[in-house]
Amino acid sequence: MGLHVLHGGAMPNDLFETELARRMGWTLSELDEQDMGRVLPGLHAAGTRDALEAVLNHVRSMGKMKPTDDDLRVYNEVTKLMKAMDDGRD
After folding, report:
1. Where are the domains of the chain?
2. Which helix (H) or strand (E) holds 36?
């Protein structure tokens, strides 16, 4: 998710399915009945994306739009994971 939001990478499949469902107007209860195993990862991905975008919006607005403490916590965890992945490639 970090690569997608922070570096313009491809949208993860879990998020793609959630976005598709949202655009088609499907409700969560309809999706839950179909396949809970696919719904929850998509919801987590969407929440992570929203938190990362909130931090980016803070930067873009030069501090006018404040992220929540939870948004900052998610951003910190994602950037730590991304750094660990980069360190592992070196």
Report:
1. 2-89
2. helix 28-60
Q: How many residues does the chain have?
A: 90
In angstroms, the CA 15 to CA 52 distance is 14
Q: How far is CA 50 from the centre of its chain?
A: 5
78: exposed, middle or buried (Cβ count in 10 Å: 0-12, 13-18, 19+)? buried
Rounded to 5°, the CA angle 4-77-62 comes to: 70
pLDDT (tens digit, 9 = 90+) per residue, 31-40?
666 677 777 8
The rounded distance, in Å, linking the Cα atoms of 80 and 78 is 5
The answer to whether 8 touches 53, Cβ cutoff 8 Å, is no
In the chain, which residues have pLDDT < 50?
none
**Cα Rg of the chain (Å, integer):** 15
